[in-house]
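Example record used in the benchmark description.
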Amino acid sequence: MLPDGEIVRNVLLDAGAAAGLPKGAIDLDMSSSDPVGTRAPGEVLSAQGVTLVDAPVSGGVARAKTAQLSVMAGGDAAAIERLRPMLLNMGNRIFLTGPLGSGHAMKALNNYVSAAGLAAVCEALVVGRAFGLDAAAMNEVLNASTGRNNTTEVKVKQFMLSGAFDSGFSAGLMVKDVGIAAELARAMGVAAPFAHDCVAVWQKMVVALGAGADHTEFFRFGERRGSTNPAD
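Model output (structure tokens):
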């Protein structure tokens, strides 16, 4: 479970970890990586009788602690079945997404949807505050209405309005994952203008607050933008 696919490939291929794996072994890549790039080490491992499975997770620190992560597993179904007892020590739902790389594709697309929802919530809260609405009350309404999403449920009160900003997932990693989703769309020849716009606004947040900032600090970034140039 490493930060990106380039590091995974360096470990497996450049540093020689793959050479030490015996025939019949399974290499489990739980990183958030470029799904297209996942195929290259998969081919190298397959040539030596080793199966690569990509199985990134979602749920954050809180659900990791309670072993309730969602696992998105791509690759050989029989290999994933062999891994199921181990995966169930980390997650309570295992989704078979398809061939090798599909787990990484699903993870990137999931995080894109999450990032877009978070940005929209933060922007709505900033606008509402400017009008005179109470942000906590707004969030209650959102959670009882069609605007409810992961951010309103487990991030606004817990990490944003509390000022904690310590969810355990950085803005830099969010930019990376949303960028993977946007590039996947480009590679597939699919127009996804909102995904590219989402990457751009998250990149601005990283420039403003740093890649190491918690991703929930997008709320602080939204407040800063709202008090300066709305078109920026």
